[in-house]
Each structure stands twice: as structure tokens, then as C-alpha cells.
Amino acid sequence: MMDQIWLGTENSYFAVQQQLAAKVPMPNLSADDKFMGLPNPLEFEVHDGVAVGTISGGLLTSSTWITRLFGITSYEDIQMALAELSGKPEVRSVLLNFDTPGGMAKGCKQCAQFIRAYGETVKPVYTHASDMAASAGLWLYSAGLYHTMDEEAKVGSLGAIMVHSEYTEQRKQEGITDRVFRTAPQKALGHPLEKLSEEAAAQIEADLAELHDKFVAGVSELSGIGTRKVATQIATGQMFSAEEAKNLGLSDAVLTIGEVVAKMARKYKPKAQAARK
């Protein structure tokens, strides 16, 4: 069920599904890994010791060669890209810039925890929203040690959705009758080839409610905002402007990405250079 729950906008869900459903030929590459030699969509540029990378588009749990072919970022890509930076001494801090409508529920919590642990033990990680950090993006954005936003950016959309499709009427019109057999009453509830039962709907709603509570707890823990405040004032599904987010405690400052990079470069300058100052 977690594979089907989306922490993001409905439009972003269908956009990613459409990309993944496209028929593309196997690339003619000799690489023997699962990515077929295709690069990580999350790339970093280093400016005065600050590695800046933009997390954009819908987010998936893990990557394959086809997700990399389309440039779709996954939680796996984010963690791999950060791990690669750990061995680069010229990188003294990391800025994750967000422009994402959200993504899959599965793997989001673990990725957010990875970002926070990395920032606390390996290299400082700040997060910035240049456009939007929605839903799953908000969870990851909260993992930074310091959070900033462009003046016209938005963050929020805390909540979970799941799109259930059933094709019984379509199949009936095509002259096809389907029957789902199961050996256990809870097996494959909500199958698309049968009418959605009240029991199946209740199970889906229970799963969404459980994830929603975990989402609230995760953002609360990472942002330092009380759980009750997150649940009642932030977990409404709405997006917040830069000033609203700052007032709620989701953002620490309204700055341009250039201002954030300059701030980080000063704060994390080489010790020898700092001593000369």
C-alpha cells in the first residue's frame, strides 16, 4: 500500500505516472550497473566551498535506468549524491535547493532522517526553497539545519493522497467479466477489477491516517515545532508563503539562494582562512 501513497500534488502524481508509462528503447550503453551509466539527476555545483544541488520534480523511492533517463530524482539518488560529497574536501557545506511538488511516501522518512544525520555528523546541510517544497518535499526540507526561502516561494501541502482506480464498468462495456478469487479476506483489497468495497475503502483511509500522523511527527521532530501546532496549523494540506512559513516556524529566513550561499561560505570558511581574518 505504501508504494501507492503519494505525498504530493495530484498533478505531480499523474505527471510522473505518465513519464514512467512511456515506451522508450533500451539505451545502447555498456555499463553493467542498474543505472546503465546514466548520471544521477541530482548534481552539485561548488561555490566557495558550498555544494549546491536542486531537488526538482516528482520524487520516487528508488532509481532505475529509466528514471534516470527521464531525469526523475529519487530518495536513493539524494542519499547517493550526498554520500559522494562526503569524500570531497573542497566541499565544506551543502545547500539543498527545493523545487518539488512532492513524491512517493515510501522512503521519504528515511531520506529525511539521512539528510539530518548527514548534516549533523558529516557536512552541514542547509535547505532552501527557490520555488516550492511541497508535501514530501516539505519533509525533506525540514531536515536541514537551517531553512530559507525565496520571497515568492511556497512550502507546505502536508498530507497524503492515494488515487484508486477501478475498471469494472469499462471492462463490462468491453464484454469482459472479471472475478477476483482470494484465499484470505484481506488479500488484495481494493483490486482495480472489482468494485471498491467499504472494507477496502476503510483500510485505505486507515493507512492514509497512519501515514499522516507519521508525517506530522516527522516534520515536528525535524523543524522543532510542537506536534500539536503542526497537526492543527500546518497539516492542513495548504501551501504557505515565505512570510507565513517563517511565522509558523517552517522557515528561518527569507533570502535569495545567492545570499544563502554567501552566508554559508562565510560561516564554514577554512579554519586557516578564518584565523587570518
Summarize the structure.
40% of the residues lie in helices and 17% in strands. It has 277 residues and is an alpha/beta fold.
Beta-strand residue fraction: 15-25%
Please summarize the sheet with the most strands.
Answer: 8 strands, mixed
CATH architecture: Alpha-Beta Complex
SSE arrangement, N to C: EHEEHHEEHEHEEHHHEHEHH
Poorly predicted runs: 24-31
The structure class reads alpha/beta
Total number of beta strands: 10
What is the CATH C-level name? Alpha Beta
Describe it.
With 277 residues, the chain is of the alpha/beta class. The protein has a single domain, classed as 2-enoyl-CoA Hydratase, Chain A, domain 1, CATH 3.90.226. 40% of the residues lie in helices and 17% in strands. The strands form 2 sheets. Strands 2, 3, 4, 6, 7, 8, 9 and 10 form an 8-stranded mixed β-sheet that branches. A two-stranded antiparallel ribbon has the order 1-5. The longest helix has 26 residues. It is globular and about 75 Å long. About 3% of the residues have low confidence.
Features:
10 strands; 277 residues; two-stranded antiparallel sheet; alpha/beta; 2-enoyl-CoA Hydratase, Chain A, domain 1; 11 helices
